[in-house]
Amino acid sequence: MLALLNAATLMLVAGAPWVSPAAAGGHTLQSPENVEVHIIDDTYTLRWNRGDEAVGNVTFSAAYQISGMDNWMNLPGCQSITGTRCDFSSVKLDVFEQVTLRIRAEKGNETSPWQEVDSFVPFQKAQIGPPTVHLEAEDKAIVINILPPGTKDSLMWALSSFKYSLVIWKNSSGADKRIETVYSRSKIYKLSPETTYCLQVKAYFQVPRKSGMYTPVYCINTTVESKLPPPENLEVYSEKSIYVLKWDTADENATFQVEWLHAYLKKIPGNHSDKWKKIPGCETLQTTHCVFPQNLFSKGIYFFRVQAAKGNSTSRWSEEKKFHIDMQTVIHPPVISMKSINGSLYVYIGAPQEEKSVSPNYPLTYEVHLWKNTSNAQIKTLHTKTDFIIPKVEPRTEYCIKARALIEDEKWNISSVFSEIVCEETKPETVATTWLIAGICIAVLCIPCVVYSLKGLLRCINYVVPPSCKPPPCIQEYLSEHSVKNLLLLASEEKTEKCVIIESRNHLPPTGEETDQMDEDHRKYNSQTSRDSGNYSNEDENSGGRADEEVQQAIV
Q1: Which of 29, 59, 77, 148 could make a disulfide contact with 112, Cβ separation 3.0–4.6 Å?
Q2: pLDDT per residue over 185-213, tens digit each?
Q3: Which fold has domain 232-324?
Q4: CA terminus-to-terminus distance, the chain
C-alpha cells in the first residue's frame, strides 16, 4: 500500500508544468548599477553598469516622470538598449523643471526591479561645453571669434549671457601664460609679429556661478609687422561740455580717423565690424586728438578706435578703448580754504565753478589729508560735508591740508587728483578766553562781595523810594505852604550845606511879634542839618559870601 502511494505522488510531481521564477512574481535579473545622468549644453546622456555581466542578451529600458505627474512615460532614445548608455536629448524638457528617471534590465519576459535615479533640474545639473573658436592673425594682435556653447536654438542657455576667459601663450614657452576676459569677437593685443601663439577659451557666467570646459588648443602665427603702425595709448577725458580723445603715434605726418561702437554689441555673437560709426569732425585729422560734444553720446558704454593713414598706406585699427560715460567722467580736484579759529581749524571745500562734469545724482565724498608742516605724518579722514571743523590743534603751529573728491559705491570707484596744498598757522590762545576764565574765577571768589553790594543797593532803593509814612512835622508844615521845585539827592560823602528858610512878606519890615517868632524858628532850624529843607542854594563859592550877607541882614 505504501509503495502505491509513493508511486502516485511521483506521477503528480512529474506531471506538473514548469513555472519560471519571473512568472511566479520573482526576479532573476539584477538591476543596473551606478546609474548617472550627464548633461552638457543640450545633450542628455544616461549611463549605467550591468548588474550581472555573466548574463547575455540583456537589454535596458528607461522611463521618466516630471514633477507633478503621477504616471511614468517611456524615455525616448532609451528603450531596449543593448549597451550601457543612451541619449535622450530629443526629449524637450523644461530646463527649470524637476525630472526623475528610472531604468531596468530586460531579457525575454524577464525584467529586473527598477533602479531609480535621484531627481534633478536640468539647468542646475548641466555643464557648459566648450565654445567654438575661429582665429585671424595680425602683426601684433590676434582676432578671435567665439560662438557660444550649445546649438543655435539651444534651450539650455537661451536666457544666459556668457562671458569668456582666454588663456594664451607663446608656443615656444608654454609656462608664460596670459589670462584675459574677452567678448564673442575680440582682439588680443601686445603680441610679437611672426610668432606662434596658442590659446584656449572657456565660457562662464557669474549668476549663478558656473564655469565651462576649455576648448581644444588652437595655435596661429602672427604676420609680418606693418610699415605704418597703428596709434597707441588712447585716452578719453571730459572738459566742460566736450570730450577729448587723445592718442600717441609713431608718425607725426599721418592723418587719423576715429570710430565708435556700442559696447552691448560685443556681447552678441557674430561679426559687427560694419556697426562701427565715424565721429563727425574726426574723419580726417592731422592732430593726435579728437574733440566732440558730450551731447553726442547718451549715458552708456562705448568703444573708440583710431586708424592712421599716410599716402596709400593705412595702419591697422588701434587697440579699442572702452569708455563709460558716467564712470569714467573726470572729477576735478576740489578747492580748499582753511582758517584758524579759537584752537580749531575751520575747513571749507568747494569745486571749481566752471566744472560741472559730475552729475548731482552722485554725491561726493572728500578724502582729506592733514599734517604739521614740520612733519610728514599725515592724518587721513573722510567727509561728506563741504565744511567742517578740525578741533584740538596745537597753537602757534602751521598745519597743511589737501583733499580729493571720491565717488565710491558697489559699481564705481572714481577719484579726482589731489587739490593744491593749503597751509595755515594756528593762533595762540586768545586774550578773550583768558579774561573769561579770570572773570569766572573772580566771580566765584567775590560772591560775598556781590551779596554785600546787593544789600547796599536795597538800602539805596529804600532811601530813594521811602515807605509810605508822614515826614516830620516841621517838613510837613513847610510842604503844605510851598511846592517843591527841585529835589536834590546828595551822596553820603558829599558835603551838606546848612540852610535857613527866610520868609518874605512883600518886603515889609517885620513887626516885633513877628521878629520874636522868626528868632524862635531860626534857632529851631539852625540847630539841625536838613536835607529836605525846601530851599537850597545852588550858587558856587564865589557867590556864597553875598548870600550870607543878605541872610545876616535879614536876621538883623
Answers
A1: 29
A2: 899 999 999 999 999 999 998 878 899 99
A3: Immunoglobulin-like (2.60.40)
A4: 202
What CATH architecture does domain 33-125 belong to?
Sandwich (2.60)
Report cis status (omega within 30 of 0) of the bond before 208.
yes
What is the residue type of 81? I
CB 390 within 8 A of CB 338: no
**What is the rounded distance in angstroms from the CA atom of residue 232 to the CA atom of residue 248?**
5
Q: What does CATH list as the number for 335-431?
A: 2.60.40.10
Place of cell 524638457: 93
Q: Are 373 and 347 in contact (CB under 8 A)?
A: no
Instruction: Give all strands of the β-sheet with 185-188 in edge-to-edge order.
Output: 132-137, 142-147, 185-188
Helix (H) or strand (E) holding 200: strand 196-205
Q: pTM score > 0.90 for this model?
A: no
Nearest to 219 by CA among 133, 304, 290: 133
Angle 197-200-206 (CA atoms, 0-180°, nearest 5)?
Answer: 140
CATH architecture designation of domain 132-221: Sandwich (2.60)
